[in-house]
Amino acid sequence: MHYKTVIVTGAAAGIGLATARRFAKAGARVLGLDCNPSIIDLGKKIPGFAGIVCDLTDIEEIRAGLHDLGTGNIDVLINNAGINPSPSSLPGTSETVWNGILETNLTGTYKVTRAVLERMNRGTIINISSILALSGARNNAAYAATKGALVSLTRAMARDHGPAIRINCVCPGAVQTDMFEKYLNRCDEPEKERERIRRALPLQRLGKPEDIAEAVFFLCSDSASWITGQVLVVDGGDSA
Ligand SMILES: NC(=O)c1ccc[n+]([C@@H]2O[C@H](COP(=O)([O-])OP(=O)(O)OC[C@H]3O[C@@H](n4cnc5c(N)ncnc54)[C@H](O)[C@@H]3O)[C@@H](O)[C@H]2O)c1
Hints:
Strand content: 15-25%
Low-confidence stretches: none
Bound molecules: nicotinamide-adenine-dinucleotide
Helix content: 40-55%
Order of helices and strands: EHEHEHEHEHEHHHE
Largest sheet: 7 strands, parallel
């Protein structure tokens, strides 16, 4: 493993935390950026991992976080942080909610990536999108729009930044994290909905954050050295 410095956004929980752990386990120096202050304590518990409280909507906080990292090439960037508050159809989405989702999921990715590219002479970037980027889903207009944009951004950037930088996208399906639990809690019968989703999957189990972390790790490894601009769906077969 020759990746030394790895940045993971939204690393305080769920998929981001599992991904940060995966790279730290492989010996990388991992910097997690998250607006949740719990990221600091995690840094004390996981060898090789340091956390910085940082809101991705704030470019000054991002720059300060990267400054703390010192000099040297940033080898890997995982754009993972994302939100989906009050999911709704387009008419049910207020302009405030629409702008908030775009600000974190899309513009936040733009801001972090732009800052990191100043420090990445060679390396690899993964954008965490969603299967909702590829298939329709009711009441998720703004979220799906941002996740679709990340797929397009991945393809566009792969052409701009090769051969030195590979850029790929991972589209998770239903993964058991806080975000997924929030979705279930909005349903009339959360446990029935959990079971309905699970049974519909060819692989008959919901995703774990580690399932996504392993896919991300593969795409960043030398085993994927001829893969760029691609979308890897990791969804238990939901979209098969
Ligand atoms: N869980 C799923 O089923 C699922 C499915 C498809 C895609 N995804 C995507 O995977 C990514 C991770 O999702 P998760 O389920 O682990 O979510 P999560 O809600 O469990 O964790 C997201 C983390 O991002 C952080 N975050 C949010 N906004 C931020 C901001 N502005 N600045 C800094 N940090 C911020 C949160 O504090 C949190 O620690 C998201 O982009 C999500 O859209 C998740």
